[in-house]
Design brief:
Blueprint lengths: L20 H8 L3 E5 L2 E4 L1 H20 L3 E2 L5 E3 H6 L10 E4 L6 E4 L4 H9 L10 E10 L14 E11 L2 H21 L6 E7 L6 E8 L5 E6 L5 E3 L17 E16 L9 E3 L5 E3 L1 E8 H11 L1 E2 L2 E2 L10 E5 L5 H16 L4 E4 L6 H11 L3 E5 L7 E5 L6 E3 L1 H10 L2
Parallel strand pairs: 3-7, 9-12, 19-20, 19-21
Antiparallel strand pairs: 1-2, 4-6, 5-6, 7-8, 8-16, 9-10, 10-13, 11-12, 11-13, 13-16, 14-15, 17-18, 21-22, 22-23
Helix pairs in contact: 1-6, 2-5, 2-6
Length: 416
């Protein structure tokens, strides 16, 4: 992509109405635009990152055996009354239509949709187990929408629902899904910082589990167990600092951002909708359910919140909008531009994602500043002084190397 054709522009100063670092950086770099508190537009660069994260999650969900669907955002009042959550869920956004005067909700989650949906297809034990997932926008009336992409009023989530004949099978899937979640966070660059975290199970079970990524700016407090590499949410520590897994008391307090959660729903949402299956003898049993969520906006915001320096964002390679940022420092010079254009075309032919800063009338300092702010993993510079050599530099490092085009291509291929 040529940067001269990118309609968005970088900003030197952070927006005054943004408190969170992730939103400040993402807006300045031209990844997102704020429409209102907790609501953002994904701009071309931001959408590329979003899609990278989305595709990683989708690949892992398909690998887990789940089938992708897309459920409606608009949900009926009657479904929420069936589960008793129409008046009890304070984040539910509700409204009455103008013409029909019907009451609806904008879905913050989809148990009230997926349970009656699967009732149409789960008839006997032969239809179990099964699992389905979607990646879709959600709406929640957040009291504090002040954390950029990490806590929004409209956001995208991957929600997976699993359906089982008994708790033994549900528990087995739950453990498998937990391992897949760890793989997802590793693939997006957060693996070393993300911990399986014990949290309150509410009415479902003794514990639920969150995935918490350590971050100094995180809203949550967790206690990390050095012995078994899990964490405990502050809400269940109570008076004694004991790890629920190994009973170690060697727990270290940390700040963290919740990037995913998994719940054993048991029959909480199957029972109200009479979601049952018939066993071999024709007897009815409630379907056992589990749910597993990852917020895509939240995950993108967390990455930006953690991977940055005083100059801008430092994207992990797996989710970066491009692999290399090619800078033409002398676009008015015919020879330099001819060489830069050749490199750009060759990179594209080699299927290497490249953002080409071919802009005229932009100073060298501005080009370097924009490159650091955008945070693409590699910067390749073509200038008058280097002839047919290219300056290559990793975003997070200071070392600069002079390489040939062949060496550049080999380097970028070997980092895929």
């Amino acid at each position: 992509m040529k940067q001269s054709q990118l309609f968005t522009k970088s900003r030197r100063e952070a927006p005054k109405d943004e408190e969170s670092l992730n939103a400040q950086l993402l807006i300045r770099a031209g990844f997102i635009d704020k429409l209102m508190a907790g609501v953002y537009t994904f701009l071309p660069l931001g959408l590329k990152v979003f899609k990278k994260i989305e595709n990683i999650i989708r690949e892992e969900m398909v690998g887990l055996g789940a089938q992708e669907i897309l459920m409606p955002t608009l949900q009926s009042k009657s479904a929420w009354e069936t589960t008793g959550r129409w008046d009890s869920l304070d984040s539910l956004i509700k409204f009455t239509t103008f013409y029909t005067k019907n009451e609806y909700a904008l879905g913050p989650t989809h148990e009230e949709v997926v349970s009656p949906l699967l009732k149409k297809f789960i008839l006997s034990y032969k239809d179990l187990p099964t699992a389905t997932f979607q990646i879709q926008n959600k709406f929640r009336d957040e009291k504090r929408a002040r954390s950029g992409l990490i806590r929004g009023r409209e956001f995208f989530m991957k929600d997976l629902y699993s359906f089982h004949a008994d708790e033994t099978d549900a528990d087995k899937y739950y453990e498998e899904a937990s391992r897949v979640y760890e793989k997802i966070f590793k693939r997006v660059g957060l693996g070393d910082l993300t911990y399986l975290t014990y949290a309150s199970g509410g009415s479902f079970s003794k514990y639920s589990h969150e995935f918490q990524t350590l971050a100094e700016t995180g809203e949550d407090t967790v206690y990390v167990c050095a012995k078994c590499k899990v964490a405990v949410n502050k809400e269940i520590i109570e008076d004694q600092n004991v790890c629920p897994k190994c009973e170690s008391k060697n727990l270290e307090e940390k700040r963290a951002i919740e990037v995913g959660n998994i719940f054993k729903l048991k029959t909480k949402y199957s029972n109200p909708f009479n979601l049952v299956y018939k066993d071999e003898n024709g007897n009815d049993h409630d379907v056992i359910m589990g749910c597993y969520g990852i917020g895509i906006n939240r995950l993108m915001g967390t990455i930006a919140e953690i991977f940055n320096d005083e100059k801008g964002i430092i994207w992990p390679k797996s989710v970066a909008p491009f692999q290399v940022h090619l800078l033409n420092l002398k676009p008015e010079n015919h020879d330099v531009t001819t060489f830069a254009d050749k490199i750009y075309n060759d990179l594209q032919q080699q299927n290497i994602e490249v953002l080409y800063d071919d802009r005229k009338g932009v100073s060298v300092g501005e080009k370097f500043a924009d490159s650091d702010l955008i945070g693409i993993p590699y910067r390749a510079v073509i200038s008058e002084k280097n002839g047919d050599k290219i300056e290559i530099k990793k975003r997070e490092e200071k070392e600069i190397k002079l390489v040939s085009e062949k060496e550049l291509l080999n380097l970028l291929h070997n980092t895929n």
